[in-house]
C-alpha cells in the first residue's frame, strides 16, 4: 500500500510549490492528484474533470459549523437545479484525510465518492490542489484554530477542466468566510452560471 501512495505524494510535492498565483477564469484545473477513500486512492483532477461540468467546492475543514450547516446542505438541496444547469458533479475538497472525508460524507448524507449523490467528498491531505490553485488560507487567526494551513472557502465551476466561475468567501475581518459565506454558497454559484 505504501508504494501506491508514495508516487502520488511525490507528484504533489513537485507540482504544488510551482503555482504561486491564484487560478483565474480561463485557466485549466491543475494537473495534481488528491485522494478518495481510505485507504486512499489517487484522483487526478485533470482526468476527473475532463469532458464534464464540475463545481469544485473548497472548504476550510470537515465537520466545521459553516461547512456542515450551510455549504454542503445547500448543494445537497440544490441537486435538481444543478442538474438542470448540466452539472455532472460537485466535488467538495478539504485539507483532511480520506477517512475524515468519508465520515463527513456519511454525516452529511451525500454518500461516499461515486455512490449516492453527485456530491463527492475528496481529500487533499497535503494541500496539493489547494496550493496549485493558490487557495491556501494562511491568515494567522484560522491557522491558529486549525493548527495548519487550510483551504479558503470557495466555489469554482469548471467546464471540461477550464475555470468559468470562481467565488471566494473571505474578508480582512473574516478570512475563513465563516461570518459571511454567501459568495461561495450554491445560490451565488447558480446566479453566476446564469450569466455565462
Brief descriptors of the model:
196 residues; alpha/beta; 5-stranded mixed β-sheet; two-stranded antiparallel sheet; 8 helices; 22% strand
SSE arrangement:
Blueprint: H1 2-15, E1 33-36, E2 41-44, H2 45-49, E3 53-58, H3 65-77, H4 79-84, E4 89-94, H5 98-108, E5 119-123, H6 128-132, E6 136-137, H7 140-146, E7 150-151, E8 153-159, E9 162-169, H8 186-194
Parallel strand pairs: 3-4, 4-5
Antiparallel strand pairs: 1-2, 3-8, 6-7, 8-9
**First-residue to last-residue Cα separation:** 44 Å
Our Rg estimate from Cα atoms comes to: 15 Å
Give the strand tally: 9
The chain-level mean pLDDT equals 84
Q: Could you state the order of secondary-structure elements as H and E?
A: HEEHEHHEHEHEHEEEH
The largest sheet, given as strand count, sense and whether it forms a barrel, is: 5 strands, mixed
Tell me, briefly, the overall form. Answer: globular
Helix content: 25-40%
> Reading side by side through the largest sheet, how are the strands ordered?
5-4-3-8-9
SS-based class: alpha/beta
How many alpha or pi helices? 8
Subunit organisation of the chains:
single chain
Roughly what fraction of the amino acids lie in strands? 15-25%
| Low-pLDDT runs | 1-19
